[in-house]
Amino acid sequence: MTAYVSYVVATAFFLIAAVMIVLQCVTIARLRRRAARAEQRFETLQHIAPALTAAALESTRATCERIVERAASLVSAQSMLCLYVEGPHLVLGARSGSGYVGFLREGQVYEGDTIADWVRREGKPAIVGPRAAGWAHMIGLYDLGAEPASSRIGAGPIAGSRDTVWGVAVPLVRPPSGMERAEVIGVLYADRPRAQTFSEDDVTTLLTVARLAGDALSRALFADRVRRDATHDQLTGLFTPAAFRKQLRDEIDTRRADTRLGATRDVALFFIDTDRFKVWNDTYGHAAGDQLLRRLAAMFSNVAGQAHGFAGRNGGDEFCIALLDRSKDASIELAQDLCRRVADADFRALAGRDDLPGVHITISIGVAHYPMDIAAGERHPTEQLLEAADQRMYEAKHAGRNQVAFSRARLRA
Q: How many helices (H) and strands (E) are present in the chain, helices listed first?
């Protein structure tokens, strides 16, 4: 009996020791996996930090391309998107993958109420898919897939449905500085088919990328704003005189090279003066004058955009529009139509003063054309085109305003 008891006790101790050894092995294995993941994240940081630091010196679009490139090299995905915040919208900065994303265009506003919009609003990373991801809460990930599709939080993947696609979105955040709070400035999004679920390590890697990418994107957005402020008029948003002339010179130089190769490509230039602008300012005040200039600039920008051109503010109430690859006759017709549209517009609401006499706003436009008015072989065609359009504009003013002036001569048959 004593021997039996001793045997049972020994067996119990052995079992306890075996269980403890197993538990220790499990713990050691878990710690090793955790250490391996930490080492992987450290390697990830070493892999992406230099590239994203360099990207911060580039444009927003180029930075988004680097973010997508680095993220896609570390986490396999069917689609990978980098979106950045512009005003109230998310704008697609870069993409990779196939399928639906092939129809998306960089620089376009992304419309929709998806996981990306939810992450932008809430400032939290999230996952959505056919079912709940049991590990999501352990890394601070909100699981939209745990919510029924009919609930208030029904946001799904950017492409496809939550029944067929796994989608992960993490916020790109501008780090807090001084008195400013952290701010969501973009979203990094990835998706996979239903059969290829994301793992905890996948999402942890994306979160690591996002922490670095937020700083890079913040710097790129700031650099873009600085560049834009240097080239765009703050009041109207159009090109400054220097930036407009540079763009015009580049376009004409390109067309001169094409002409030497036998191609014929045109540039039409409108030089625009706002008639009676001083009277408007004296009557309604400078604030109303600024409102008028903004409204006119929007009209000119729209015309330029539709004609594949660009617009600039020349200073004061003078503007320029360049139209690319449009014949002289077609350009004159467009200038005359613009003149009529401004004359027919009712700008009185901008003044906000019904008790004062109305001021009828019109414009005078001078049109010059390359190479119809300025020969391709001229030494300084850009300066001569500007001078010719300016001269025609003064002719329109002296002829009574509210009209278009242009040279009747044709240098080229």
A: 10, 12
Q: Please compute, for residue 118, the number of CA atoms within 13 A of its CA located in the half-sphere on the CB side.
A: 23
Give bridge partners of residue 34 from the DSSP assignment.
Answer: none
User: Does domain 22-229 sit in CATH 3.80.30.20?
Assistant: no
Residue among 300, 324, 295 nearest 312 (CA): 300
- Residue 321, CA atoms < 13 Å, CB-side half-sphere: 29
Closest-CA residue to 224 (of 109, 92, 61): 61
How many residues are listed for the chain in this entry?
413
Decide: 93 and 63 in contact? Cβ < 8 Å: yes
pLDDT for the residue 262: 46
What residue type is assigned to position 13 of the chain?
A: F
What are the boundaries of each domain within the chain? 22-229, 241-406
- 365-385: average pLDDT: 91
The owner of tokens 């590239």 is: 51
Q: Is 298 exposed, middle or buried (0-12, 13-18, 19+ CB in 10 A)?
A: middle
User: Each residue of 222-252: pLDDT tens digit?
Assistant: 888 888 888 899 899 999 999 999 999 999 9
Tens digits of residue pLDDT in 7-65? 666 676 667 767 677 677 766 666 565 555 555 555 555 555 555 555 555 789 999 99
Which of 77, 80, 82, 78 has the alpha carbon at shortest distance from 55? Answer: 82
Question: What distance in Å separates the CA atoms of residue 115 and residue 370, rounded to the nearest whole number?
Answer: 50
CB-CB contact of 108 with 92 (8 Å): yes
Take residue 254 and report the two structure tokens written for it. Answer: 């390109």
Q: What is the pTM of this model?
A: 0.60
Structure tokens at 175: 């780090």
Instruction: Say which CATH topology domain 241-406 has.
Output: Alpha-Beta Plaits (3.30.70)
